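pls read this protein.

:::
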Amino acid sequence: MQALQKTLFILALLALFPQTVRHLYVKWFEPTSSVLDKYEPPVKEGIKQAGSLDELVKQYDEAKKKADEAKKKAEDETRKKASEAEGHDAAIVYQAPDSEREILKASIQEWESRAKEIFELRFFWSCGLVLLLLGLLCYRQQYLWSGLTLITTGISEMIWWTSPTFRWEGGSKEFEKLLTNKIAFSLATIVLLLITGYFAERINSLRVKRA
């Protein structure tokens, strides 16, 4: 039993330490600039500066309004000018605002996706914590196999939901929030794992003495 416990403990640490280091790297050390940044449309900078989903929605509303107006203007020009070349030039007028709108739409969808990930991380990590506490309680009551199963399940849940399952370019505020949550919960999982290991050792020592 003790050999299995130590093996599981080591495996859990081997999973937690590398992923926590990766989170820290992405947040503070990973290069984010590119020589191509100067060629990005202005809307990208607005997306990076947005502090909330409402701000992105406001930008999207403005881009949609511009696109609709440009499209209407292009249609009016097309009716006035029968020339194919002039009609082509008029169509180009609304392509840029429409492209802006699509970029903002994708960013809003990404933001909502990250917000969902944050909620899932907090919810399922909390479920893992409950399982861990139940496992420790069972272990203390000498239900060793049941306790070990619950502890392992709880820690596995925490490791899974703090793992680096994301990759999103753009560096929006919601991405930073997700990354911060991943770091915080990864560190909390490491601390809880160390406490659990100490607790299990104490119980095993007491059981041996009584025997």
